[in-house]
Amino acid sequence: MTAVPHARPGRPTLRSVAAACLLALLAGPAAAHDHGIAMHGVPKYEAGFERLDYVDPDAPKGGTIRHAVRGTFNSLNPFIIKGVPARGRHLTFESLMKRTRDEPFSLYGLIAESMAVPEDRSSVLFVLRPEARFHDGSAITVDDVEYSWRTLRDFGRPNLQLYYRQVERIERPGPHSVRFVFAAGGRDRELPLIMGLMPILSKSYYATVPFDETSLTPPLASGPYRIHRVDPGRSITYRRDPEYWGRHLPVNRGQYNFDRVRYDYYRDGNVMMEAFAAGEYDIRFESSEKRWATAYEFPAVTDGRVKLEQLPHGRPSGMFAFVFNTRRPPFADRAVRRALAHAFDFDWVNDTLLYGAYARTRSIFANSPLAARDLPHGDELALLEPFRGSLPREVFDEAYRPPGGSGDIRTDLRAARDILTAAGWTVRDGTLTHTDSGEPMAFEILLVDSRNEKIALAFARNLARLGADVGVRTVDTPQYQYRLSTFDFDVIMYRWGVSLSPGNEQAYYWGSAAASQDGTRNYAGVRVPAVDALIERMTLEHERDAFIHAVRALDRVLLWGHWFVPLYHLNEDRVAYWDKFGRPEVTPLYGIVTESWWERDRGTTSDAARTESPRPP
After folding, report:
1. pLDDT at 602
2. pLDDT level of residue 185 (50, 70, 90 thresholds)
3. What is the mean pLDDT of residues 321-328?
4. What mean pLDDT is predicted for residues 157-168?
């Protein structure tokens, strides 16, 4: 196949016709949606679409956007468990397909110009674009795709290994085509999309560079930006490649408009806020309710140079929670977990510490149709029935509400004491003690963000009223990441992010196999056959309604397991930004996409100079 330069969008080209013919020959008549794929149903954008709805195709290029990140980094390799990678992977590394932000889960051609999937999704075939290039000018080939799969399968992060080990074999039907054949008859319907999102590495580059080691040397990639400057642990700057091979593709049109994208790192949140007020970076997604209420009163806000907006979105809340590590006593006992959860006084925390800004989280998928509601019935109940004997009765008989929340902490603590007494715990000399073993209830809440200390301390004070000895400890990012990766903690505060199309990653969060594998996010140590079965069922469903029933059933089982104490969430994004940007009129389902923004007034020489100079200590 040869590239056809300056082909008109939406018109079939010789190459696209040839690709369609090749797909028909290689994949047979059962192949569908060769320009893209949706997890359920059909993609929103039809073949020949010109652009995405949430971009401006005429957005000007140029200027700079500067972000800020709390913490540090010591690696430019985001694919291995070692090190803390820098932000910006999405700017440099590319995958075979690209995800859109205005659909639950749909992919369209990027490195692969087309794809074919049989009805049972037991395999997926990709046809590569001959014009796709790495930054050194070398073509992206089937060799690179196969190398990427084998390398990430064997040496990548645990979630990548979990996904890519489900490929039974790889086939190469043609010079630009590659097929992944899945094990177990292709039972997981999400696998074709997961393979479409696989990052593509350069085989020749990693022939001389060790893949499984941290490095601050910019790796060879293929995306719209190249790494321009690295100040280790402090900042990283990306420079737009004006000759980027994929700049005219429909999935990219109107995006990646800034000449430079910079991430500055700060170890202290207060310093980070002061830097924004001083104009040291451009945009801030505010997660602190106190700052949102009190810190945005500086002159640039008053005179309109900084804009404050609260923008609703359609993302599920995810689960922000105190998480019990059930690998350690006494948290293996569900009754103990349930009792301790009563000690979190959401009403007091929200009113006193959070400026009344939050809603209590009652589902992993709150703010979406995926959340479990009322009592299970119909198809959802049918999914749960085979596990009735092994699940708490409340899964079937009660609509979930987080323990506590009565509005009277004394009432909640009395309920906690009753549960603990029934579970074999009594107070001796002021200390909550196990009746048989004599072991005291003593544990630590491990934090990485000092902003969470006030929440953890409020929880710890109420736990102390039950007789528990609870410490709160904040550590630096590298230590925290290591301890999480090895499950070396008692209780943490953690947020699991989820999408509108949850799938295989749920096994990484909650699956039994992940509970004993370092580096996964099954921090609670969940090992429940019903959870494993429901995650598998989610990945098998063809239709959206059946998928929603499976997700709701999973949500219900996890909530009633009391593996965590649900905290709170917002249903909107709080964003502050210097008024130098233009943005499309449409905000997609998943919220703001800054890659579609642009700088209204091109950066001055002084702006460019500031971007290139290191951030002061």
Report:
1. 53
2. low
3. 98
4. 91
Question: For the residues 445-466, what does the mean pLDDT come to?
Answer: 96
Helix (H) or strand (E) holding 312: strand 306-312
Which residue is it, tokens 């544990």? Answer: 443
DSSP at 188: -
Please report which confidence band the pLDDT of residue 610 belongs to, taking 50, 70 and 90 as the band edges. very low
DSSP three-state, residue 183? coil
CB 228 within 8 A of CB 260: yes
The answer to whether residue 336 scores a pLDDT higher than 80 is yes
Q: Which residues neighbour 228 within 8 Å (Cβ) at sequence distance 6 or greater?
A: 237, 238, 239, 260
> Is the confidence at residue 343, as pLDDT, over 70?
yes
* CA 491 to mean position of chain CA atoms: 21
What average pLDDT does this structure show over 218-243?
98
Cβ neighbors of 242 (< 8 A, separation 6 or more) are none
Q: Which residue from 445, 528, 509 is spatially nearest to 483, judged by alpha carbons?
A: 445
- The two tokens of residue 505 are 């990653």
CATH of domain 319-569: 3.10.105.10
Strand-pairing partners, residue 308, are: 576
| 254 neighbors 57 (Cβ within 8 angstroms) | yes
Where in the chain do CATH 3.10.105.10 domains reside? 319-569
Query: What is the β-pairing status of strands 568-569 and 359-360?
Result: antiparallel
Chain mean pLDDT for the chain: 91
**Nearest C-alpha neighbor of 182 from the set 191, 173, 190:** 191
Residue (of 393, 426, 392, 402) closest to 343 by Cα position: 402
DSSP, res 97: E
Q: Measure the CA–CA gap between 550 and 552, rounded to whole angstroms.
A: 5
**10-14, 199-203, 370-374, 406-410: which range is least confident on average?**
10-14
- Does domain 14-206 fall into CATH 3.40.190.10? yes
Residue 269: enclosing H or E segment and its boundaries? helix 269-277
Pick the closest to residue 280 from 581, 579, 605, 615 (CA basis).
Answer: 615
Residue 473 near residue 492, CB atoms below 8 Å = no
Residue 405, number of CB atoms within 10 A of its CB: 17
Q: Among residues 480, 502, 485, 616, which one has the least CA distance to residue 548? A: 502
Structural tokens at position 103:
């659909």
| CA nearest neighbour of 434 among 338, 362, 336, 511 | 336
Dist. CA 596–CA 57, nearest whole Å: 9
Largest CA distance in the chain: 84
Give residue-wise pLDDT tens across range 512-524.
999 999 999 999 9
DSSP 534: H
First to last CA, the chain: 53
Concatenated DSSP letters for 276-310?
HHTTSSSEEE---HHHHHHT--SHHHHTTSEEEEE
* pLDDT given at position 288: 85
CA-CA distance, 48 to 41, in Å (whole number)? 19
CATH assignment of 254-314+571-612, among 3.40.1130, 2.60.40, 3.40.190, 3.90.550: 3.40.190
